[in-house]
């Protein structure tokens, strides 16, 4: 019944001759995490900038909690938090001073800004570093501070634009934990990412964006199910790749993808394939097989399939 | 335009947020005492460099001590450094995404430039005080009484404030701290192209025209007048040199009238 808390309808945006958005539609129900997934240049950041009132769409409209991002930008800004691709904190100040600054600028009282800063530093594991200058923080700590800086005014909707880009694996895990913590509070999160495992781990729903449009939506499992099962074949000798590829092509009706020097992957639409049949066919073609596996596809494969940029073996 | 808040409330938040942001600039300075030391050492270096190194070779027109002649020029220089200081800070915030964060928050839009220029005014007062102290030590002094002296300092502070808005606009246009850093060395020639350090009489006619219309020359000439320092007017002065106080007021008002709206528009514009 209730409208999505984040709603975008037919957003268009061009920069010079580049059409960054070509009719992007998006709806995020309250209290969920939406992963906006897409390659570089797909329009993810442009969409976030419009939703966060930093940029106006050329056409289309968007609302946050029912408020129009163009006409009622002031109301929208009271309800959102934005963590962009930079750690937009002041390196010269301490972590605590940064949070108090953003608290005050978010129009909290002096006392509340102070209390809220202390709470958040404690909760997100930055209490020990709170009184050090941010310039001395690690990349992960800086991003975490950036993330909690937009929590200080208790936003209803949080926009995270590629929150883990450029972080080491440990930093990524720290950010993931922080996002899960937020979700537990009921904050609605819209996060953009190029990393499929990130969307897989964090998002309730995924919107796959390519060339300024949403080309697929669904839960991670739904998206994976659209591809049916996936077959992995590892051959013992790279010379066996070509015959193996033609066997898979004959079976599945699609070109397999080369995923390594000695391995192939093919989607098997509709299921109904028996592993034993496949092995027998490969054997008949004289392919020495090291490993054969049937499994659910990964999001990577879904993504590549959807954006149609796979490398095929001929 | 885009916000639904009534005007009085908006004004209140502009002031409150502006003070918060000015406080941030002061806190940054406090966190970096080396910067303060460097900033305060600058006047001393300038006085020694120009007053003693160059001064030994320069004749003051109409006679008089070169250091008395020089100090109004250095006060004027303090006015102009506001452009680079504020430009650098605005560009740094824009390039590091801090500006976007401000813009996505309920923070009043104009609070950012007001905070920057307000903090810069305080910094300017500190610099001016250091410059005055150094001047007094090397033998400079005002000769025309408290009222004229106060008038001179007010003009210097006014021009600096007006110039800081030029810096706001440039910083918002440049949007990149590296580009801003590359622009900074350009300010020295602009400073030199004036009557601050040498009389303009000896310059080629076209260059002299430029120098005479440099706002820096106006404030220098006005302060020389009001402090009673040497540097008599030449025979056929350009208009700003004949009416330096009016010229400073004009330059300041013109800078504010042009650059405050430009800066406000650049700050509130939503495009990219």
UniProtKB/TrEMBL annotation, chain A:
Pfam families cross-referenced by the UniProt entry: ABC_tran
Recorded GO CC terms: plasma membrane
SUPFAM superfamilies recorded: P-loop containing nucleoside triphosphate hydrolases
Protein family per UniProt: Belongs to the ABC transporter superfamily. Drug exporter-1 (DrugE1) (TC 3.A.1.105) family.
Protein name in UniProt: ATP-binding cassette domain-containing protein
Domain ABC transporter: 6-236
Chief location of this protein within or outside the cell: membrane
Keyword Transmembrane: no
Entry keyword S-adenosyl-L-methionine: no
UniProt membrane topology term: Peripheral membrane protein
Keywords: Antibiotic resistance, ATP-binding, Cell membrane, Membrane, Nucleotide-binding, Translocase, Transport
Gene Ontology MF, one: ATP hydrolysis activity
Compartments in which it is found: Cell membrane
UniProt GO BP: daunorubicin transport; doxorubicin transport; response to antibiotic
TrEMBL record, chain B:
Annotated transmembrane regions: 36-58, 113-140, 152-173, 245-264
UniProt key word Transport: yes
Domain of life: Bacteria
Keywords: Antibiotic resistance, Cell membrane, Membrane, Transmembrane, Transmembrane helix, Transport
Presence of keyword Chaperone: no
Membrane-related topology note: Multi-pass membrane protein
ABC transmembrane type-2 domain residues: 34-270
UniProt-listed Pfam families: ABC2_membrane
Family: Belongs to the ABC-2 integral membrane protein family.
GO annotations of cellular component type: ATP-binding cassette (ABC) transporter complex
Protein name as annotated: Transport permease protein
Gene Ontology terms: biological process: response to antibiotic
PROSITE patterns found in the cross-reference section: ABC_TM2
GO molecular function: ABC-type transporter activity
Compartment(s) of residence: Cell membrane; Membrane
PANTHER family for this protein: NODULATION PROTEIN J
């Amino acid at each position: 019944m209730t409208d999505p808390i984040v709603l975008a309808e037919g957003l268009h945006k061009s920069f010079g001759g580049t059409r960054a958005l070509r009719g992007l539609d998006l709806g995020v129900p309250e209290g969920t995490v939406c992963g906006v997934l897409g390659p570089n240049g797909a329009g993810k950041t442009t969409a976030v900038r419009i939703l966060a009132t930093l940029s106006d769409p050329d056409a289309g409209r968007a609302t946050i909690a029912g408020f129009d991002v163009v006409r009622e930008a002031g109301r929208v800004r009271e309800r959102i938090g934005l963590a962009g691709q930079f750690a937009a904190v002041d390196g010269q100040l301490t972590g605590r001073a940064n949070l108090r600054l953003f608290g005050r600028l978010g129009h909290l009282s002096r006392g509340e800004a102070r209390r809220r800063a202390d709470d958040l530093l404690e909760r997100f594991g930055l209490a020990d570093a709170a009184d050090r200058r941010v310039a001395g923080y690690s990349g992960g700590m800086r991003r975490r501070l950036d993330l909690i800086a937009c929590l200080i005014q208790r936003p209803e909707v949080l926009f995270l634009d590629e929150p883990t880009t450029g972080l080491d694996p440990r930093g990524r895990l720290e950010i993931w934990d922080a996002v899960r913590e937020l979700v537990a509070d009921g904050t609605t999160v819209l996060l953009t990412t190029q990393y499929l495992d990130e969307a897989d781990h964090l998002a309730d729903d995924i919107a796959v964006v390519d060339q300024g449009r949403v080309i697929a939506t669904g839960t991670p499992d739904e998206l994976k199910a659209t591809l049916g099962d996936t077959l992995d074949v590892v051959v013992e000798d790279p010379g066996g790749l070509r015959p193996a590829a033609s066997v898979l092509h004959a079976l599945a009706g699609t070109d397999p993808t080369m995923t390594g020097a000695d391995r192939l992957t093919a989607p098997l639409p509709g299921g109904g394939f028996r592993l034993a049949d496949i092995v027998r066919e490969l054997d008949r073609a004289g392919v020495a097989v090291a490993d054969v596996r049937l499994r659910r596809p990964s999001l990577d494969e879904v993504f590549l399939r959807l954006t149609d940029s796979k490398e095929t073996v001929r | 335009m885009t916000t639904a808040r009534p005007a009085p409330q908006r004004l209140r938040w502009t002031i409150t947020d502006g003070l918060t942001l000015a406080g941030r600039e002061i806190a940054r300075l406090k966190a970096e005492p080396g910067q303060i030391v460097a900033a305060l050492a600058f006047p001393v270096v300038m006085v020694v460099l120009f007053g003693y190194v160059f001064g030994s070779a320069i004749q003051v027109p109409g006679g008089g001590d070169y250091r008395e002649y020089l100090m109004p020029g250095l006060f004027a220089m303090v006015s102009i450094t506001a452009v680079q200081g504020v430009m650098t800070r605005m560009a740094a915030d824009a390039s590091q995404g801090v500006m976007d964060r401000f813009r996505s928050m309920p923070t009043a839009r104009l609070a950012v430039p007001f905070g920057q220029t307000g903090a810069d005014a305080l910094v300017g007062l500190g610099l001016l005080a250091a410059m005055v102290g150094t001047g007094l030590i090397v033998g400079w002094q005002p000769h025309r009484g408290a009222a004229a002296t106060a008038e001179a300092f007010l003009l210097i502070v006014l021009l600096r404030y007006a110039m800081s808005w030029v810096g706001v606009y440039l910083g918002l246009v440049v949007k990149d701290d590296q580009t801003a850093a590359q622009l900074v060395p350009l300010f020295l020639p602009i400073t030199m192209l004036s009557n601050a350090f040498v009389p303009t009489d000896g310059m080629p006619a076209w260059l002299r025209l430029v120098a005479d219309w440099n706002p820096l020359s106006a404030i220098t000439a006005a302060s020389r007048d009001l402090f009673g320092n040497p540097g008599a007017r030449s025979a056929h002065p350009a208009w700003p040199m004949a009416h330096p106080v009016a010229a400073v007021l004009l330059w300041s008002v013109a800078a504010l009238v042009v650059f405050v709206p430009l800066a406000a528009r650049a700050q509130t514009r939503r495009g990219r």
